């Protein structure tokens, strides 16, 4: 019986690199495009506007601030793209098949469950069964059609980072939006100041001043236009997710209108500030699996012996397994799900 790393048995559409040490979404390479959309403008900014402020005013503030914010933005981008957002592995056969021809475990769970509501704060939350993953979804869990698995506290699948944004990487996503918004604002302000300062020193006004300044501010003009376009999208996204934090919602819940009224939202704290404090102090949830763990390749054994086992098994072995004998999945508490 051969041994393999557990990532080779992963039932989703994720991509793995360096022998399972890095896991990305199926569209993870899009994060590389996002990287260059941030990195290239940063190089252009340093090469002209930042150098101008150092040479003319002996002031490295623009250079150092922009470099620091760009570094943080790219760091958060890497963390969002490479971190497991909270995947729950599928319970697929042969692992979900009962012994000696008994009912599949997922079938017994579905019959015993079908469906249940649990109290969260002062509300009842319905737990749903995922027929694709063969699991009972914890509160706020949803199935991602892009990654092909269920994700805890699912917010959305972001094509810009090539990964799901959910329970375990949402804080990094907020950090990415915040720092990228600051990069856009700083770039817009400093390039505008650079163009205006060069125009004033040329002692010209209007179109003539722009034409005179163009040879020395071409990069700043391009960055000014680029950052002006980008700022609407990035700052808009940052503002939207700030609103979601204030109201204790996810993007998925907002689009469904699940908690439009804060009174009926069990994840809304007493006020906006409490939501922020709880969000940032809540410890990072552990992963449900180890992708580097060595596992046995049981697929060939299952296919060759399952039929024989079903035919030769004693009668009592064919009796259904009671729900109490099934190891239940740990349901997240309200604090875990937030």
TrEMBL record:
GO MF annotation list: protein-cysteine S-palmitoyltransferase activity
Residues annotated as transmembrane: 31-55, 61-82, 173-193, 223-246
Keywords: Acyltransferase, Lipoprotein, Membrane, Palmitate, Transferase, Transmembrane, Transmembrane helix
Location (main, coarse): membrane
Pfam families per UniProt: DHHC (PF01529)
Catalytic activity: L-cysteinyl-[protein] + hexadecanoyl-CoA = S-hexadecanoyl-L-cysteinyl-[protein] + CoA
Membrane topology: Multi-pass membrane protein
Domain Palmitoyltransferase DHHC: 126-256
Keyword Transferase recorded: yes
GO CC field: endoplasmic reticulum; Golgi apparatus
EC numbers, comma separated: 2.3.1.225
Subcellular location field: Endomembrane system
One GO term of the biological process aspect: protein targeting to membrane
Cited InterPro entries: Palmitoyltrfase_DHHC (IPR001594), PFA4/ZDH16/20/ERF2-like (IPR039859)
Domain observations: The DHHC domain is required for palmitoyltransferase activity.
PANTHER family named in the record: PALMITOYLTRANSFERASE APP, ZINC FINGER DHHC DOMAIN CONTAINING PROTEIN
Entry's family note: Belongs to the DHHC palmitoyltransferase family.
Protein name: Palmitoyltransferase
Species this protein is from: Stentor coeruleus
Upper lineage: Eukaryota, Sar, Alveolata, Ciliophora, Postciliodesmatophora
């Amino acid at each position: 019986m051969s041994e393999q790393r557990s990532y080779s048995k992963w039932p989703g559409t994720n991509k793995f690199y360096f022998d399972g040490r890095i896991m990305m979404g199926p569209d993870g390479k899009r994060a590389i495009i996002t990287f260059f959309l941030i990195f290239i403008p940063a190089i252009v900014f340093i090469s002209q506007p930042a150098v101008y402020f150092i040479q003319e005013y002996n002031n490295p503030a623009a250079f150092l601030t922009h470099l620091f914010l760009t570094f943080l933005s790219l760091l958060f981008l890497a963390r969002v793209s490479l971190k497991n957002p909270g995947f729950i592995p599928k319970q697929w056969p042969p692992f979900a098949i009962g012994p000696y021809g008994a009912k599949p475990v997922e079938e017994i769970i579905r019959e015993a469950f079908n469906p249940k509501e649990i109290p969260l704060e002062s509300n009842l939350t319905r737990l749903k069964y995922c027929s694709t993953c063969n699991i009972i979804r914890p509160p706020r869990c949803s199935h991602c059609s892009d990654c092909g698995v269920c994700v805890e506290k699912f917010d959305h699948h972001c094509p810009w980072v090539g990964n799901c944004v959910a329970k375990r990487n949402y804080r990094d996503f907020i950090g990415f939006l915040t720092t990228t918004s600051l990069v856009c604002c700083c770039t817009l302000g400093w390039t505008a100041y650079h163009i205006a300062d060069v125009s004033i020193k040329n002692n010209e006004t209007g179109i003539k001043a722009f034409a005179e300044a163009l040879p020395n501010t071409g990069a700043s003009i391009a960055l000014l236009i680029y950052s002006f376009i980008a700022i609407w999208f990035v700052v808009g996204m940052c503002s939207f997710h700030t609103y979601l934090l204030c109201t204790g919602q996810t993007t998925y819940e907002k689009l469904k209108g699940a908690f439009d009224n804060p009174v009926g939202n069990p994840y809304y704290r007493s006020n906006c500030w409490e939501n922020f404090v709880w969000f940032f102090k809540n410890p990072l949830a552990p992963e449900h699996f180890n992708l580097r763990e060595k596992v046995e390749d049981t697929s060939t054994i299952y296919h060759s012996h399952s039929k024989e086992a079903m035919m030769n098994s004693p009668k009592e072995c064919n009796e259904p397994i009671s729900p109490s004998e099934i190891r239940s999945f740990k349901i997240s508490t309200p604090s875990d799900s937030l």
